[in-house]
Amino acid sequence: MGRYLIRRILYMLVVILVVSFITFSLMHAVPGGPFDKEKKLPAEIIANLEKRYHLDQPLWKQYLSYLNDVFVPQFASEGPKGLVVEDDFLINIKITDSFWIRWMNFGPTFTSRSRSVNDIFRQNLPISVQLGLMALMIAIVIGVPLGIISALKQNTIWDYLGMSVAIFGVSVPVIVLGPLMIWIFGVTLKWLPPTGWGSKPPYFLGVFPTNLSWDYWRTAIMPSVALGLGSSAILARLTRASLLQVIREDYIRTARAKGVKERMVITRHALKNSLIPVVTILGPMMAGLVTGTFVTELTFGIPGMGKYFVTSITNRDYPVIMGTILLYAVFLVIANLLVDIMYAYLDPRIRYD
User: Fold this and answer.
1) Is 98 helix (H, G, I), strand (E, B) or coil?
2) 194-218: per-residue pLDDT in tens?
3) Closest residue by Cα to residue 194 from 230, 228, 221
4) pLDDT one-digit tens code per residue, 90-102
5) Whose CA is closest to 335, among 132, 166, 147, 141?
6) How many other CB atoms are found less than 10 A from the CB of residue 202?
7) Is 54 within 8 Å of 62 (Cβ atoms)?
8) CA pair distance 75, 79, nearest whole angstrom
9) How far is CA 319 from CA 29, 116, 218, in A?
């Protein structure tokens, strides 16, 4: 397993570099620039702005400079006192009293002089991560048991009811379900706040809220359910189909013929093998939910990363685009690595060494 993990980590670095190169190339291939506004700026001002942000340099030099800022530790003779892991995605490590290392600098944002890309990540990315994790938990808690019940009660009222919920979750998008929930629970019944998010910086480990009050959960219920319901429907249908296939295998019939209790047959033999396809889809699903969804954040007025990512594309804000996609790529490759590790737990026949 150790050799496999080292090999996968090296592959992950290669994937992230390839993603950064493709993103950088496509980003600069789009016509226009970050300072092409509806009101045309004088050529002198555009030239000064491009010089300030090093956009007047050749593309290969800009790309290497960006990689250097993000991935290569920067050494300096002055810095913060002591070992500091800042919650703005900048890591400062003190070596001596006059020597320190600064790492993961995503650069400035072209649309704001007072904020950098690291500031946007520090303030908005934790909210998207919190929303995504809660939506993922809702998807697993609803989808997997629903699929199991539907498979074990095939062609009964429980099967039809479970698949009806799954079809509803797949068919009704967030752009419809979100306003409907706001109208029912936020405006009509006034049980839950229709918009907003209940957590603010600082965050524990830079991501998790420190104040888990009832007000926080009240603001998180509707967007988490709206975002997680569609994913739970996918998990329910996949779990049902996989479990139905497994319980018809020969080794399941053999276990039953030996007199093994039905509960043990399902939980110990059938369920673990049937969850392998489910775990496979959980990797990209987790990465997609954790990095946030623009429609959900816009519908419920949540200040996450979705809004900044979309506006950065229209504004040609290159550092925000690059930083967001790199973070998404990191989430995705880590999620896929966790999925591969789970394979070995679910199926003892799978070995990586």
Assistant:
1) coil
2) 888 877 777 776 677 777 778 888 8
3) 221
4) 444 444 444 445 5
5) 132
6) 10
7) yes
8) 10
9) 15, 9, 34
Q: What is the CB neighbour count within 10 angstroms for residue 78?
A: 8
Q: At what angle do helices 305-314 and 318-346 cross, to 10 degrees?
A: 130
d(CA 303, CA 297): 7
Strands (E), the chain: 74-76, 84-85, 91-96, 99-103
Residue type, 116: S
SS3 content of the chain, % helix, strand, coil (to 5): 65, 5, 30
Q: pTM for the full model?
A: 0.78
Alpha-carbon distance values, 242 to 77, 174, 277 (Å): 59, 27, 7
Query: What gap in Å lies between CA 44 and CA 101, rounded to an integer?
Result: 37
Write out the two tokens for 288.
């997609």
150, 240 in Cβ contact below 8 A? yes
Question: What six digits make up the tokens of 113?
Answer: 């002089």
Please return the burial class of 46, using the count of CB atoms within 10 Å of its CB with bins 0-12, 13-18 and 19+: middle
Q: Which residue type occupies 22?
A: I
Stated as kind and residue range, the H or E segment containing 292 is none
- β-pairing, 91-96 vs 99-103, is antiparallel
Residue that the structure tokens 């998008």 belong to: 173
CA angle 282, 287, 293 (to 5 degrees): 115
Please tell me which residue, 182 or 169, carries the higher pLDDT value: 182
